[in-house]
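Worked Example 4.2. Consider the chain below.
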Amino acid sequence: MNISKKWGTRAFALGLALLSISCKKEPDNKGQTSPDSPLQNYVYYGEKSTAFADVKLYFAEDAFVGYNRVAVELFESGSQQRIENASLSFLPLMDMGTTKHSCPFDNPVYSAELEAYQGSATFIMPSSTMASWTFGLIVNHNGNIDTLSFNLEVKAKAKAKVISFISAADSLSAIFIALKEPSSPEIGLNTLELMVYEKESMMSFPPVSDFSIEVEPEMPSMGHGSPNNEDPISIAKGLYRGKVNFTMSGYWKLHLKIKDANGQTLNEDAAFDISF
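Applying the procedure from the previous section yields the following structure tokens:
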């Protein structure tokens, strides 16, 4: 295990410990952002306070099973000056009663455009009466560290936005692929972005960047595919980008064939259902 991975695991464990003893228990107040905010189209999930900062949590839309864009605003307690130089870590956690697990996520970095810290979380299952999600944050600013947690209801989309399978290479590794783009498909050539992760443990889902992925769109009702598609290639940290061509509106099936770095086929039955 390399140093960065070891530190990430320790930070996650530390965060879980801090959550159990120092989480603030204020109710989550889901509301709206101000009309002039760069986050005005985001969904506001509430505000909580540490000993030194006020924290506001936003999602690009209601939290769902799949790839979610997440934003966090930080303000100094008292002065309410915006904090732009803090270090934040996410701690998504599902409690299923007898067991707990996390999900793939990218810790946020500050975005001047959004005036907030921007990251992501790929939820792999919905909330239910038997299982609930919390979204924890470790906030580190000027040597001060605190942890807090928001309750989340995560819903499943009508069409799945994340698929998983057991690798054919070893029959042990669980692979998760999330459809990031197109989020609003249209007729013609669309940017295709997929996020790929591997389950390392119940609390660790590192990105995978050395797969090769072939895509083949199919319109089942019409019995045809489409030309000019571009297989997605690895860009960085589990992100694969290509092009998919939808020649007409309706129901499409986007077939995927996934191979590992050695060229071994891991899965050739994975597919996303897309309708527009």
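The domain at 43-152 is CATH 2.60.40 (Immunoglobulin-like). The chain has a mean pLDDT of 91. Compare this with Example 4.1 before moving on.
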